[in-house]
Records
---
Amino acid sequence: MNGITIGAVGAAVIAGLVSLLGLIIGKEQKVSEFRQAWIDELRKCLVAYLVNINAVADTVRLKKAGTPLDNSALLGSYKLLNEASHGIKLRINSAEAPAQALLKSMAEFDRLAGDNASLTPDKIRDVETRFTQAAKELLKFEWNRVKQGEKIFIWTKRIVSVTTVVMIFIFFYVWATSEKTEEKQKDQLGFHWLQL
């Protein structure tokens, strides 16, 4: 009777752990999907930012060369640049190191864009290289976060693993001690029969 009770409690605990793990895995999978969509949108903003910085620089360079251009093209590029800039800033956590490197390179672009004379291809390429490297590091950092999972998921995996190992040891201990007890009882019965 004692073995049946332990088995029932063990089965209930295992079912509860499996249910909890399924719930957490489902939630974390959804969070990972949302985070991946967020990374994709961030990537689009990063590309738009670079494209429009270069568009502004090209427009300024053509104006300096004497090509008659309408200012609406320049204003449109600045508008798209601002939209991409704000999209980036709203999607990143400025307290994290990869985001800080990206924001620093964006500040360098802002300084260049503040003075049209500074918008030369060489200066833009230098900042663009730092921006691209910082963007790659940020995207890799976020990808690793998606791959590892959220902190609660990591801790739940650890707790479930430890609990499973402990339960296996308990099961084998109960099984081994119950067999020894049964053997002792049989030996005692056999010895008792011999005495009779």
Note: DSSP finds five helices and no strands in the chain.
---
Amino acid sequence: MKTSVKANLAAFHHDARLYLTLGIANWSVFVDHIPNNVVNLLTLRNFGFSGAADLFVFVVGYGVAIIHGRMSLERGYLVAATRIFRRVWRLYAAYVVLFVIYIDAIAYVASQSMAPEIIHEYNISGILEHPLRILIGGLVLQEEPLNLDLLQLMIPLMAFFPFALWGLLRRPNVTLAASVALYLAARWFEWNFRVSPDQEWTFNPFCWQMLMVLGGWFAVTGAPGRALRDLPWLRLLAGSYLVFAMAVTLLRHSPELSAYLPGLLLESIAPTDKENLAPYRVVHFLALALLATHLVPADHPGLRLKPLQAVIRCGEEWLAVFCVGVFLSFAGHLILITGPNLVAMQIVVSIVGFAAMTAVAYYVAWSKRQDMPAALRQQA
């Protein structure tokens, strides 16, 4: 392991910004999954090229590199790798349980004619005719019901990360270069995982792995990130790009205003090019991360404000909160399409969902503390 990497890992302290970012991503994913909801107009995807998925993948890569990099430093790489694979199993188990219950709930709603069209909207139209085929396809990640794509993506990314971590701990720059090369090759040769019968994954793992490795690279190197934040001209450039991205995104929302955008710009920046992680998405996310970490340092007193603790807690328990959020988004969508879809109702549904996700996060954290020895429970 490189000496500089050892020093960066040893010097790392708890950073609430990581969990705050994951909490924001979880809340954003929840409201983004409820169509025709005025609250999701406030999420990141409406003001630039990147979105909640970018936050999720990068921060998870950063956090896993820190946690398991330190574990590798203290207990050896083999222990760290096996702990990551254990997390992969937990992700897969959570996905399978969520998949089975989720498609059953959607099929039940459709069969009861409460909202029969919902079975096509959620991409499981074959469940009524071929339930066994859909179930087996889900177990081998060959089905992709709506809103489960991000959790599905995290399974191969996490399974790949032990190999990436081995390189990041020894040759971080070479590992990042190899990751970028795989990203470019996947885009050029159109590599992707397949979904039954002839579709592709919404998030291409061969491309999105780069964002996760990039998060790990920033975690283990540390110093380049701090050096970049100290360059005023770079912050100005990042701010200018964010303004440009926001202008293009907002103009795209209006057919009348989008007519003023150059044709070349419209063709080169696809509004939904998230499958292969378009380069301009990566640049937008990095610009956003650069300014955010500069404006909100790790010791910022605002991170201790009570209102933010709920979001931070949702980030700490991100897997449980994400799974609950999938069901809540489905329930919220069902309420809005079967009842009065008023703006007030959309806001109420969103607020109730946030409250439920927060309650789950606090319960999971409390439950974990109960399994600790008494001495550790008092410190937690």
Note: The longest strand covers residues 194-195.
---
Amino acid sequence: MRAVACWLLLLAAPGYAAASPSFACPPQGWDRAALETLKREEFALADPVRLEALAQGLVFCLGDPDPTLRDGIAYEALSAWMRKGALPAPALRRLSDLLYFRLDGPEGEGYVHPFAALVLAEVARTDRVAAWMSAQERATMVARAVRYETSVRDYRGYDARNGWRHGVAHGADWLMQLSLNPALDDAQLAAIVDAVAAQAVPESGHAYVFGEPERLAAPVLYAARRGFRDEAQWTAWFAGLPARLGDAKLAYRDPAWLARRHDLLAFLQAIYVSADVSDDARLRVLLPGATAALKAMR
């Protein structure tokens, strides 16, 4: 993680973070008006050196409390450039290191980690579309995505003033892009679906209201579509989910238990409906396990 080491050394320098425009949002050489113009021009930037410099600078806008800068410009620009293939593999490696660095840093107001994860989902997509990562780099990304998703404890979603945080859903998007990658092996897919299980029924008893169960279902559905696990194996996996509701003595008498039931019900229904309407036999192997888990919750 060469880039991370460089950033950490810079951070350690007295007064660097406060003084350096590299950590500022908007980035050095850009103001808000220029960024808004760039957005109107669909983020067209012909100079690859200038584009990469701005891409790295915009990583430091991912934690900005202004949703226009954070979501509407920083995320949208990074996503657009990656989907257009504007960042070659060396630039994507440097971007990944910088995003990992942001994930390892403080949460601040709660925006930076979810948006770093969302941009990393786009990085994962580039490798899925045209492989450029080494096996070790890909394994590192799977491990980082799993660690991120299972560690989320900030369940805030949308705020009318400050926009999205949505940590669980953004992590699920990262896992989804990885689950679609044919280079992943069964052990890596197992780690992904187990990470989903950890957040499908959050221990804290937070009730999802921003579409998280559907986003969490996606990596499971795509893993199944690859032929990962047979019907018996999926049924065994689903059978472990109702136990996450907690003490049966608290059933229907405890708000946290009820919230967990709400979340699991929504997750299982998302799986069930998607599998039931599909003609893909690889998806339909999910139905017996999902059905049994739903019945176990009655």
Note: The longest helix spans residues 255-276.
